[in-house]
Amino acid sequence: MPEKTDYSLESDFVKELDRDILEFIRRGMENQDEDGFNKLTLREFELQYNTIEPYKKYCDKKGITPDIAGNWMQIPAVPSLAFKEFVMASFSVDKAEQAYFTSGTTDPRRKGSILRDKGAVDLINAANGLLTRKYVFQNVERMKILLMTPSPQMAPGIGMAVGLDRVRTEFGTPESAYLITPRGLNVEVLLKALLDAENSGKPLALVGSTVGFIYFLQACETEGLSFKLPHGSRICDGGGYLGQFGECSREEYFEKCSRVLGIEEYYCINVLGMGEISTNFFDNVLDNHLKGKDEERYKVIPPWTRTEVVDITNRIRLPKGEVGLLRHYDLANRSMVLAVQTDNLGFETDYGFEIIGRWKKKPGKLDAEEIKAGHGGKIMTQLGNFLLRRSLKKIGNVYRKIAKER
C-alpha cells in the first residue's frame, strides 16, 4: 500500500511547492515557461484537492481529479460564491497570518474569510510587489502616497487596507498618509498635500478606491476647485467606474483627473484586485508610455496567472473581444484555490483583458454595449459612502480656510 502523502504546511510537498512558485514569480514578466506553469498548477491542484473538502466534492462532481487533469485548463474553477459559503483554505486555519472578508457582496452576513499562511503571504507580497513596481512606480524609487483607504489598524478585515499598507511601506516616503478615518475622509490632509505638491514641485501619488476618487473629483468640480500637480504625479484606483458612482464612465474619469488634478491619462492606472484572487491585475498604460509604445489600455496577465473569458451559459471560452465572465488561474493562490470563476464581466484582448462590469445573473443575452458603459465593481460599504460624501460637503470651506492661512 503506497504511503499517504503529507500535505501539511510543514511537509516537504508544500515547502517545495512554495519555493518553486516563488522562484517562478521572481523570474518576472518576461517568463514564458508554459510547461513550468502547467506543472506547478497541477501540483497546486493536487494539494488543494486533498486539503479543501468543499473543493474536493466540487471536483468529484465535475469528474476531475489530480489523476485525470492533464493541464491547467482542465482544473475546475470554483465559483467565487464558494468563498462566502465555505472555508476555502489548503492549510490548518489556526496557522493563518492573514484573515479578512471577501469582497463583492451586498449581504455582510454571507461574507466568508480569505485566509493565508506565512508562505502564502510571501507569495502574494512577491507577486504584487513586482507588479506594483513595474506598472505604478517604475520610474521612481519612492514618493509621497496618499491612500484613499482606512489603515489596516482601523480596518483589519478589509483586504484593500492590508494590501495598500504594503504599498505604503515598500514605495512610500515617511510623509505618506491614510485619508479615511472613522469619521470619513480627512479633507484637510488631502487638500494640504495637493497644495504642497503644487508649491514644492514634488510629484504625488494617490492610491485607493475608484469611488472615493470620483466623489472627490465631483466635489472639487462643484466647488470650482482645481490643482496642477507636478508632472509624474499619478493616481492608481481600484474598483471601477459605475453609474452608481454618479454616471461616470472611464473616459469621464480620466478627463476629471486631468481637469481637476492635472494628471495625464497615462498616469491614471486602474487595478483589479479581488479577495478571492491573490494577484492584482494592472493597466499597461504607464509601462507602455515609459517605453514609448502606443497600445490600447488593458489589464496585464502576469506569467504566473492565466485569465479566460467564458460564456455565461455554458462556461465555454469565448473568442477575443466577446463579453463574458472572467475566470482566473493564479499560482499565488496556493493557500486557497488556484482556479476561480468570477461574476465579473470582461473580454480578452490580444495581450490581456479588460473588466467592464458585474453580471447581474439576468436571463437572456448580454447587451455588450450597455455593459461597456460601466466598469469594475463596488468595494465600499453604504456606511463608507455616506461618511465619504458627508466629509466632501465641506471641501469648499476647508479649502478656503487653508488658503487663508497660507
Q: What would CATH call the class of the domain at 121-399?
A: Alpha Beta
Rg from Cα: 22 Å
SSE order, as H and E? HHHEHEEHEHEEEHEHEHEEHEEEEEHHH
Low-confidence residue ranges:
104-111, 367-380
CATH topology of the domain at 121-399: Rossmann fold
Helix content percent band: 25-40%
Helix/strand-derived class?
Answer: alpha/beta
Major sheet: 6 strands, mixed
What global shape is seen? elongated
Average predicted confidence as pLDDT: 89
* Beta-strand content bin: 15-25%
The N- to C-terminal Cα distance equals: 81 Å
Q: Count of DSSP helices? A: 13
CATH architecture of the domain at 121-399: 3-Layer(aba) Sandwich
The total count of strands amounts to 16
Keywords:
16 strands; six-stranded mixed beta sheet; alpha/beta; 406 residues; 13 helices; Rossmann fold; 19% strand
Can you characterise this structure?
The protein has helices spanning 12-26, 34-51, 53-62, 82-85, 118-135, 159-171, 187-200, 210-223, 250-261, 285-291, 368-371, 382-392, 395-405; strands spanning 78-79, 98-101, 113-116, 144-148, 177-178, 180-181, 184-185, 204-209, 234-238, 268-274, 277-282, 299-300, 305-310, 324-330, 339-348, 352-358. With 406 residues, it is an alpha/beta fold. The protein has a domain at 121-399: 3-Layer(aba) Sandwich (Rossmann fold), CATH 3.40.50. Strands 1, 12, 13, 14, 15 and 16 form a six-stranded mixed β-sheet that branches. Strands 5-4-8-9-10-11 form a six-stranded mixed β-sheet, with helices on both faces. Strands 2-3 form a two-stranded antiparallel sheet. Strand 10 (268-274) and strand 11 form a beta hairpin. Helix 1 (12-26) packs parallel to helix 5 (118-135). The longest helix is centred in the first third of the chain and has 18 residues, at 34-51. The radius of gyration is 22 Å and the shape is elongated. The termini are far apart. The model is unreliable at 104-111 and 367-380 (pLDDT under 50).
